[in-house]
Design a protein that fits this description.
CATH superfamily: Glutaconate Coenzyme A-transferase
Largest sheet: 7 strands, parallel
CATH architecture: 3-Layer(aba) Sandwich
Helix content: 25-40%
CATH topology: Glutaconate Coenzyme A-transferase
Order of helices and strands: HEHEHEHEHEEEEEEHEEEH
Distance between the termini: 71 Å
Strand order of the largest sheet: 4-3-2-1-8-11-13
Radius of gyration: 20 Å
Oligomer: single chain
Length: about 260
């Protein structure tokens, strides 16, 4: 049995340029600490595979709220189920528009279900999946189509990330993970599909201290464990603070929009 606990710097030291990186991104279960560590590590020409690629307003970034665009300078392609890039109060939107136009950044849109199914196919060693979502749209361009029982399907290739970054609540030193509530999200399937998986956690315990019935991701799918320092912006306390900042900001924007709508004649 191998102790998998290490630092973020050591865990990500071997990430190469051009890697395919998968991560759950949005609210609980987001690997904010590892995302920042990958930024510092400096790997370039990354392909980001994520459920949400949502820009953060500059005012939120200034208060420590982290978004996927933190890695924008190191990214060459984004594959995401949901992308929000037309955000006037984010300076990243202009950068994305410029790079897409000049051909140095590519976006591929998929559904949330296809996002998971491609990872599942990669984890199970399947050759891919046929899916009806996207028929008659830009999604089908360049992809194989097949009619099965009278219905058209698009072939979606499996995704096997070079690096899976996940966030869990607690781990033992062997890499067994438990999650809290909806923080589970896509993390278990990312861990299963990735060639190399690093998990950030709030707490690390000794082997045998976790109730086996609560373990969701077995240590067989986890290569390295990183504990988030208590004084880091990615700590549980700071994460709650950042979530509250984001909530208040969204409430303020909704109130402003409602006021503007009410003021129209």
């Amino acid at each position: 049995m191998r102790d998998k606990v290490t630092t973020a710097t050591e865990a990500l030291a071997g990430v190469r340029d051009g890697a395919l990186v998968a991560a759950n991104f949005w609210g609980p279960g987001t690997p904010n600490y590892l995302w920042q560590a990958l930024k510092k590590q400096g790997a370039k020409d990354l392909t980001i595979y994520t459920n949400n690629y949502v820009l953060r307003a500059d005012v939120l970034k200034e208060q420590g709220v982290i978004g996927t665009a933190l890695l924008l300078p190191q990214t060459k392609k984004v594959i995401a189920a949901f992308s929000a890039i037309q955000q006037e109060d984010s300076s990243d939107s202009a950068e994305i528009a410029r790079r897409v136009e000049e051909g140095t950044l590519e976006f591929e849109s998929i559904s949330h279900g296809v996002f998971i199914e491609r990872l599942y196919a990669g984890a199970m060693g399947l050759g891919g999946v046929y899916c009806p979502i996207g028929i008659g749209t830009l999604v089908e361009e360049g992809k194989e189509k097949r009619t099965i029982n009278g219905r058209e399907y698009i072939f979606q290739e499996p995704i096997v990330p070079d690096l899976g970054l996940i966030s869990a609540d607690k781990a033992d030193r062997l890499g067994n993970l438990i999650y809290h509530g909806t923080a589970r999200a896509a993390n278990p399937i990312i861990a299963m599909a990735a060639r190399y998986t690093v998990a950030e956690v709030y707490e690390i315990v000794e082997p045998g201290e976790l109730d086996p019935d609560t373990i969701v991701t077995p240590g067989a799918f986890v290569d390295r464990i990183v504990r988030i320092p208590d004084d880091d912006p990615g700590s549980k306390k700071r994460r709650i603070e950042r979530n509250l900042i984001s909530i208040r900001y969204r409430q303020q924007k909704l109130a402003e929009a409602a006021a503007a709508q009410g003021g129209r004649t």
